[in-house]
Amino acid sequence: MLRLQKSNEKYQIYSSDRYIGTVQLYDNPYHLTNCYLHLELKELNHSIGASLFAELKKITHRPLQIMIDSTETSTLAFLTASGFECRRKCYEIEVRFTDYTGGKTSLPLSHCQVGDADYMQSCQLLFDHYVATHKSINPWTADFQTFCSTLPNEVIYVKKGNSLSAAFIEGNEIAYTCGSNKLDFEQFLHCLVSAMFSQYETICFECDHCDWPMMLLKSLFNVHCENSFDTYVLD
User: Fold this and answer.
1) What is the dihedral of CA 107, 133, 212, 166, to 10 degrees?
2) Contact, 123 vs 159, CB < 8 A?
């Protein structure tokens, strides 16, 4: 017999009146379709997983989402046995010039800041891409202006006719990239990397496996990523 008892912002979980842990439900104000979970379980009993999450869905009336490190294999097995699916794998990467598989490339790069027309055009391109790639994970539910407010203030970009390639930069971090033409974008990335290594010893970025611009950036380096930070969803 499974029983959930609310205590402050958490639910205490009992199996046959035996306490087995807690679960916290919370929202991301930018992604309100799914309800987020934080699990603190003393044991991972696969026989009660499906029942536990079914009870939580009765409370939330929404899909459930959990963010977890790929090294937590026991919890991952518990989640998948309970019906969760991996929707996104995020890699944290830091590279040096010696990791770069391309050559030094020069192309005139433009810079813009918040308030510039090209900055807003870059924001719109990134927003459209972000909305499309997160639709099957947990859709963006806030507005465009809110999205823009979360971005770094500096953009490095190249415009070629109707083609735009852009990167939102903060120090040595490439926070976001976007491109309207893949061939132009790949050339842009080589120039961006060359320019940044002229300023910094290392470059860091995060990339989701479902985000082609950032995965293309990752492919320019000889790096092997065993671990990732993953998103699991139960519809």
Assistant:
1) 10
2) no
The amino acid that residue 176 corresponds to is Y
Chain segment 134-158, per-residue pLDDT in tens: 999 999 999 999 999 999 999 999 9
Q: How far apart are CA 59 and CA 106, in angstroms?
A: 56
Q: Tell me which of 3.30.110.30, 1.10.10.10, 3.40.50.300, 3.40.630.30 is the CATH number of domain 2-83.
A: 3.40.630.30
Closest CA to 94 of 155, 171, 195, 183: 171
Buried b (16+ CB within 10 A) or exposed e, 103-132: eeeeeebeebeeeeebbebbbebbbebeee
Segment 40-57, tens digit of pLDDT: 999 899 999 999 999 999
- pLDDT for residue 103: 77
